């Protein structure tokens, strides 16, 4: 039996919304989770706006930020909304955590495929186009198309591949998380596994990938650099995940007994 974990179901306010145009179902919904990243969010939105793939839906979920970042997003959306198939800005009534924020985004997305987007990680212009080119032709049990990412220390040029370029394989997941959260996810698969689960201290994404594997889903890699993973002192990895590695490893091994992580793994 997996340990019982409660994932919040927060109420929220619709700050801004333009529904998808009549008779137009977007092929991709981009879901952005936002919490106290006002210094990064506009750069990220600009890279979403610059995507070659058109049209697609944009959903931004603010997890009750205290830095008024949602106000920046609201203003930006008012000036750019006409370029999207539909736009939605939601704000949780209380801080519910990353898993709940992503789940709110998925619930309010209308496309069959959802691009999961962190607020502090920009994309290259063809990110959605190249990922969807693969998604169109994958088998039904493929739930994830994940890209290569370059890490970029704040203010420094890109240096290494995030995840070391490793493709989706259960054998790799046994010992470490090779896949970053930023990926194209089949919404049906998200629903079937019950969405993201709240993991105190982080690693919701690793747990979600493991849940997909537990339920017979798989993923494929898009062998292109589609975005950037930004290392900075205020990232969730730096603030909560790294200080709690041993506890998180033990919890995930309880939830997914096939894991073999033993303190010497690298996590995203």
Question: How are the elements arranged and paired?
Answer:
Blueprint lengths: L11 E7 L9 E7 L3 H12 L7 E6 L6 H12 L5 E7 L5 H10 L5 E6 L8 H9 L6 E12 L7 E2 L7 H4 L10 E3 H6 L11 H11 L3 E14 L4 H6 L3 H11 L13
Parallel strand pairs: 2-3, 2-5, 3-4, 6-9
Antiparallel strand pairs: 1-4, 5-8, 6-7, 6-8
Q: State Rg.
A: 17 Å
Q: Report the span from N to C terminus.
A: 26 Å
| Helix fraction by DSSP (H/I, runs of at least 4) | 25-40%
CATH homologous superfamily caption: Spore Coat Polysaccharide Biosynthesis Protein SpsA, Chain A
Largest sheet: 9 strands, mixed
CATH class: Alpha Beta
How many helices does DSSP assign? 9
H/E topology pattern: EEHEHEHEHEEHEHHEHH
Overall tally of domains: 1
Q: Predict the CATH topology.
A: Spore Coat Polysaccharide Biosynthesis Protein SpsA, Chain A
User: Which stretches are poorly predicted, pLDDT < 50 over at least 5 residues?
Assistant: 264-268
CATH architecture heading: Alpha-Beta Complex
Taken from the alpha-carbon principal axes, the silhouette is globular
Q: What is the total tally of β strands?
A: 9
Structural class: alpha/beta
Question: Average pLDDT across residues?
Answer: 90
- Beta-strand fraction estimate: 15-25%
Describe the 3D structure.
- This protein has 268 residues and is an alpha/beta fold.
- It has a single domain, classed as Spore Coat Polysaccharide Biosynthesis Protein SpsA, Chain A (Alpha-Beta Complex).
- It has helices at residues 38-49, 69-80, 98-107, 127-135, 170-173, 187-192, 204-214, 236-241, 245-255; strands spanning 12-18, 28-34, 57-62, 86-92, 113-118, 142-153, 161-162, 184-186, 218-231.
- Strands 1, 2, 3, 4, 5, 6, 7, 8 and 9 form a nine-stranded mixed beta sheet that branches.
- The radius of gyration is 17 Å and the shape is globular.
- The two termini are 26 Å apart.
């Amino acid at each position: 039996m997996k340990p019982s974990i409660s994932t919040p179901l927060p109420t929220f306010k619709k700050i801004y919304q333009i529904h998808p145009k009549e008779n137009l179902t977007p092929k991709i919904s981009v879901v952005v989770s936002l919490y106290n990243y006002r210094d990064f969010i506009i750069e990220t939105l600009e890279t979403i706006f610059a995507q070659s793939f058109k049209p697609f839906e944009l959903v931004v979920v603010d997890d009750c930020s205290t830095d008024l970042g949602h106000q920046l997003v609201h203003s930006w959306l008012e000036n750019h909304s006409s370029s999207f198939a539909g736009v939605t800005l939601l704000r949780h009534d209380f801080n519910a955590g990353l898993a709940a924020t992503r789940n709110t985004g998925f619930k309010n997305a209308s496309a069959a495929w959802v691009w999961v987007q962190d607020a502090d990680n920009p994309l290259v212009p063809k990110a959605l186009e190249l990922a969807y080119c693969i998604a169109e032709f994958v088998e039904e049990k493929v739930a994830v198309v994940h890209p290569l990412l370059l890490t970029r220390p704040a203010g420094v040029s890109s240096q290494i591949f995030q995840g070391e370029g490793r493709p989706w394989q259960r054998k790799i997941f046994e010992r470490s998380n090779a896949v970053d959260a930023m990926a194209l996810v089949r919404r049906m698969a998200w629903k079937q596994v019950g969405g993201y689960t709240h993991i105190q201290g982080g690693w919701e994404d690793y747990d979600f990938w493991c849940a997909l594997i537990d339920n017979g889903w798989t993923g494929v890699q898009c062998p292109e650099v589609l975005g950037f993973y930004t290392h900075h002192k205020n990232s969730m990895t730096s603030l909560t995940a790294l200080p709690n590695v041993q506890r998180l490893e033990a919890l995930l091994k309880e939830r997914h007994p096939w894991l073999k992580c033993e303190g010497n793994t690298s996590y995203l």
